[in-house]
Amino acid sequence: MNDMKKALAGKLLEIKAIKLQPNDPFTWASGWKSPFYCDNRKTLSFADLRTWVKQELVHTVLSEFPEATAVAGVATGAIAQGALVADALAMPFVYIRSKAKDHGMQNLIEGELPQDAKVVVIEDLISTGGSSLKAVEALRSAGFEVVGMVASYTYGFPVAEEAFKAANVRLVTLTDYEHVVEKALETGYIKESDVELLNAWRKDPAHW
Question: What does the pLDDT read at residue 204?
Answer without folding.
Answer: 87
